[in-house]
Design goal:
The chain is an alpha/beta fold and 455 residues long. Helix content is 44%, strand content 18%.
């Protein structure tokens, strides 16, 4: 006779029903390295064939598992080889045509997003990199499901400031081309330092050059579960006890996520890749990283102590998750996007959170300046300065950092942008008015730090 632990059953049910636990994404990483051709039309045909070959049953099987285990799988996604590499072989470098092909396939396959309209330019540009970056505004403005990322810095190479400048202009153009939609194209574009090729989360997902032909990467999430676990401890538990509770909760979240991921990978007859432990919030009430800080004892996100609380949370999540799986990867930790987190939205609106405080928090979070809306008339040079600061944090600390900044067209401090869905909404945040122009316009490359010489 099988003996069931009633408490564990109830705990799992509560994680899902009461505290918004879900599998945030199943992301199929597909290599397109065999899709090269001098003819862009042939490239597009090969891409269609390859995506259909591996992903035609992704949504169907994910829905079947969702129903079988009663665990929501919120997003079904695809990540492909950086398209700058694929389009570079074409005589006519029509990256917009490739972008539209990817978007068409996303619609045909029924997935939510497709990532990989990307370039890796931390040490300089190839002709294909430049052509892709120049095409990003049009490509993102004319597609709905395509996401783009550009890596402009690493701890080994330093910061390509020419790329930083180019990306600040690109971000502005993306927002301007979608001014009727609050600049949503900029929300689908992220600038990275130390990007990783197995990240399942958008907008930064792509299939790294060293990844296999195809693999399934899982992104779990559970800010609400972590918040509830901390709240159950009460106010008198010390920080060591608090950390252990977070580790235990992350262990449970990770184990459940890997179970789902391996089951789906087996059904698709492809390898299981990694599980990304990142606590990815949503605008839904109770699904907020900012509210975890309140459960820890801070009055609100942005109070002094927020960075320390985030550091502890990030570390405990990783420690708990790594005990549950040998295949932890991606970004893993805690995300702090403004527009996608109900608590962060409130803190920014009440000015508890400033741009500078968010930047400080990115020193210890999983990504960086994420989904931050700023006035549409912010100079491109100022945006370049923001990106450079964030890249420097990643470069020096040997961690992934990113900037996803939205200069909202025709809007200023006090206004709001509204995207809906997972992208949420956000108040326009105040930006430092001091000029960065003379510094960023120097161009060139900020050299890698001394600790990069560690061979």
């Amino acid at each position: 006779m099988t003996i069931f632990d009633e408490n564990l059953i109830l705990e799992t049910i509560n994680m899902i029903k009461l505290y918004n636990y879900d599998i945030r994404t199943v992301t199929l990483a597909i290599s397109l390295r065999d899709c090269l051709s001098e003819d862009v039309g042939v490239v597009c045909d090969k891409i269609r064939y390859k995506l259909n070959k591996y992903a035609q049953n992704l949504v169907k099987y994910a829905n079947e598992i969702e129903n079988e285990y009663s665990i929501p799988i919120v997003n079904k996604r695809i990540a492909v080889t950086p398209i700058s590499l694929i389009g570079e072989s074409c005589k006519e470098k029509d990256y917009v045509k490739i972008a539209k092909t990817l978007n068409e396939m996303a619609n045909e396959l029924g997935i939510d997003f497709i990532g990989g309209f990307s370039a890796l330019v931390e040490k300089g540009f190839t002709q294909g990199d430049i052509a892709l970056i120049n095409s990003i505004p049009e490509a993102l403005a004319e597609t709905e499901k395509l996401c783009s990322s550009v890596n402009v810095a690493t701890s080994k190479a330093g910061i390509n400031m020419d790329a930083v400048l180019k990306m600040s202009d690109t971000i502005k153009k993306c927002a301007e081309l979608t001014s009727d939609k609050d600049g949503i194209a900029a929300a689908k574009l992220v600038v990275f330092c130390n990007s990783v090729g197995d990240n399942p989360f958008m907008a930064g997902a792509y299939c790294g050059y060293g990844e296999p032909e195809c693999a399934l990467n899982i992104g779990v999430s559970g800010p609400g579960v972590v918040r509830a676990a901390i709240s159950d401890l009460g106010k008198n538990a010390d920080l060591g006890v608090l950390s252990n509770k977070i580790k235990q909760t992350a262990y449970k979240i990770t184990g459940t996520g890997e179970l789902i991921g391996r089951k789906l990978a087996k059904m698709l007859n492809i390898p299981f890749g990694v599980i990304d432990l990142s606590l990815a919030p949503t605008p839904a009430v109770g699904d907020s990283v900012a509210q975890i800080f309140q459960a820890m004892g801070l009055e609100h996100a942005g109070a002094h102590g927020t960075t320390a609380a985030l550091a502890m949370l990030n570390d405990a999540v990783k420690k708990g998750g790594i005990m549950a799986s040998s295949y932890v990867g991606g970004l893993s930790g805690a995300f702090i996007p403004v527009s996608e987190d109900a608590g962060m939205i409130e803190a920014a609106q009440k000015e508890y959170l400033t741009f500078d405080k968010l930047e400080a928090m990115t020193c210890v979070c999983s990504v960086g300046l994420d989904m931050i809306a700023i006035p549409g008339d912010t100079p491109s040079s100022t945006i370049a300065g923001m990106i450079a600061d964030e890249m420097a944090i990643g470069m020096i600390n040997k961690k992934t950092t990113a900037a996803r900044i939205i200069p909202a067209p025709n809007k200023n401090v006090g206004d709001r942008i509204v995207f809906g869905g997972l992208l949420g909404e956000a108040p326009i945040m105040k930006v430092n008015s001091l000029s960065s122009e003379n510094f960023v316009n120097r161009g060139g490359r900020i050299p890698a730090p001394i600790h990069s010489l560690n061979n």
